[in-house]
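hiii so um. not sure if this is the right channel but i have a protein structure encoded as tokens and i wanna go backwards to a sequence. like what aa goes where. can anyone help
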């Protein structure tokens, strides 16, 4: 099953798990990613411009559920889209 998205996906995409060497901020929930914590760095080219996002492990788990359920998602709205799945009891 594939999803229908009203926004374009990336032309180039990379997702790497890192161990933080300094404090970062999760792009989705805004919580700190502390030194020593694992996090995911997402890099991609959307419509000819590069973007980079950092996700804490918790928010990355939500991304993985959305992918598994073939739900279209947009970085910066992951938590809302995940909550929408719960609201409609699709999990």
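sure thing!! here u go:
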């Amino acid at each position: 099953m594939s999803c229908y998205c009203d926004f374009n996906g990336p032309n180039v995409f990379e997702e790497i798990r890192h161990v933080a060497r300094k404090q970062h901020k999760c792009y989705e929930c805004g919580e700190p990613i502390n030194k020593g914590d694992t996090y995911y760095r997402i890099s991609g080219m959307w419509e000819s411009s590069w973007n980079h996002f950092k996700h804490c492990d918790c928010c990355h788990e939500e991304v993985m559920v959305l992918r598994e359920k073939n739900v279209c998602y947009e970085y910066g709205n992951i938590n809302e889209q995940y909550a929408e799945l719960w609201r409609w009891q699709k999990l």
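oh and Helices lie at 57-68, 78-87.
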